[in-house]
Each structure stands twice: as C-alpha cells, then as structure tokens.
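Chapter review: from sequence to fold.
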Amino acid sequence: MKIALITLTHGGLQLAEKLREYNPKIDVFSHKKCKYEYVKFIELPLRDNIKQLIDDYDMLAFIMAAGIVVRLIAPYIKHKSIDPGVIVIDEQGNYVISLLSGHLGGANEYTRELAEFLHAHPVITTASDVNNTMAVDILAMKLNCYIDDFEDAKIVTSHIVNGDNVGIISNRSIDIDLPKQFITINNYNISPSIDKYNIKGLIVIDSNKIDVDVPISYLCKKDITVGIGCRRGKTREEITKELMPLLKEKDINIRRISRISTVEVKKDEMGIIELARTLRIPMDIITIKKIKEIQHLFEGSKFVEKTIGVTCVSEPCGYLSSNKGECILNKVKANGITISLWKDGRKNNEY
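The token string follows.
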C-alpha cells in the first residue's frame, strides 16, 4: 500500500518522524523546508495539489484539523470502490480518525494500527465496526470477492447493522468466522429458511441469480491473474486499451482480476503500477531466476532474452502468480504489450 502523510506544521513534522519509525515507506509531504531530508515539498495552496496525491496514493494521512481535510478532499471524492483511504491525526497524536473509505480503502484497519503504535484513541464511526459486526464490503474483502452492485450491498448492510438476520448462500466454503446473525442457507431450501430464521437480506456468493422477496447482494470471486510484459514507457491507458478486448472476448468482468504480474525489471513501469492501483489489486513481481526455471514451458523469443535475460514474460509471470492456474488466454502481442490471462489455482483461504 502506497501511503502519503501530509502536514503543514513543525509539530506535525515531528509526529511524522515518529510515524516513520512504524512505517519507513510513508512519503511525507510539507510546504516547509526542514531538517528531514526525506520530506517531499508540496506547494500551497494545498487544495491545488491534493488531486495528484489522491491519484498517486492508496492512503492519505493528514496531520491537521479534520475540517480542513474535508474541504480539501471533497471535490475529488468519487465512490467507495475507488476512493483512497483517508485518515486524520491531531498534531499531539492523541486521536487517529478514519475519515474516508474505512472498509475498502483500508482506513479503519490502518487507523487501529497507527493508534496502537501512538497509544492514541482510534476514532472509527462506520456502523458495522461500532456494532461489532461485518458489513458486506468487509466480507467481500475477506473472501477476495467483488461486489456486483454497491446499492444492493448498502441495503443488505443496513439490515446487518440494525441487527437483523442475514442469509448466506455460497457455492464455496467460507473459512472465516461470521457474526451470529449470518445464517447459512442451502440453495434448495431458500424460502423456508428465510421464513424460519426471519431473514431480512441475503448475501449470495459465486452463485446464480435467486428470485426471493428480500434484498440480495451478490459477491463474485476475484480469480483472474493478468500476466503483462511491455516495452518501456507504456501508459496505463495503452495497456488498458489492449486488455479490455481480451477480457470481453473471454466474457470476463474486469473486476474479477485479482492481481497483475510482471517481471522484476518492470517493477517500476508506471503504466503497470497505475493499472494495478486503479483496480486496487496487488502487483506481483516475478524474479528472472524464477522465470528461467519454467520458461521452457512457453514459447519464447531470443530478442526478449537478449533484452531482459529471459525468453518470455507474460505467460510465466501469470502462471506463477496464479499458483500454476489454468491458462484462459495464451499471450497476445499488440503495440509493444503482451498479455496472458490465468484462472487462479489457489484455494479459498490462500488469497
């Protein structure tokens, strides 16, 4: 996770120095020149430069007043599925506040971590956390699923936080602890179970559409790995332009992608990095040593080998990152970009 910490005061910089003890990879931004060489300069007014940080980082932590932060980020808030996590910390380090994207953006979890490190009070206001239950989006994250419709998920979550019983229908095993109000239902016994347990909503996982008179939220497994190789300098837009027709050809929703994989010499390729960040999925980096061990399994190129040291990239990377999964689409080359698609070979609890 790429994290930016923004502060405008000397006291905030001192606290930032302390937080870097917890996570040295945090990028600290301030408008002040100071003794800390790692601090990146950001020009004022801050509102003119905040959009770039929102685009570039998965999590923003502000050491300043919550009201200021609300005004800064308000013009750039889009949707909980893509917004970064936003955290606010007071200058004395007494309170750590999860302000935005607490679940999908990870702000709630990171708030707890920072508060524990600082011996501060975590402030988390999402209803499911306050009531010690589990919202639909958290369940989706834990099961490595995507949510088919966020409005449906919102309705079902409202029943969860109100303490109503919610049914679970799944074609896969669920290896996590669920709140007591979650009732497992068999596909062949749906309506009687809804009546018996007074169920007010359903969560359906990796299953077909169901016709019952309660709100339903459908969760679908993220089970596709994309292996990518490309010439230097390819942008996110260029890679996406080549990827989308391939997904359409195989009738794969882009939200099924669980990870993107490439070779270590491409680990700083911004087009691939930005695509992974946009999809909010991990970017797996495969070493040349590991590729060499299996490259004989795939069609290779002497030119590629002379350039980067291995004969092929997208297929061995996809194969390894998918845990030796099923190849859905052999490598396709176009405009300096090579893509292959793989169905993950992991078990449910290995994500």
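Two observations follow directly from the output. The domain at 136-221 is CATH 3.40.1390.40 (Udp-n-acetylmuramoylalanyl-d-glutamate--2,6- Diaminopimelate Ligase; Chain: A, domain 1). Residues 236-249 form the longest helix (14 residues).
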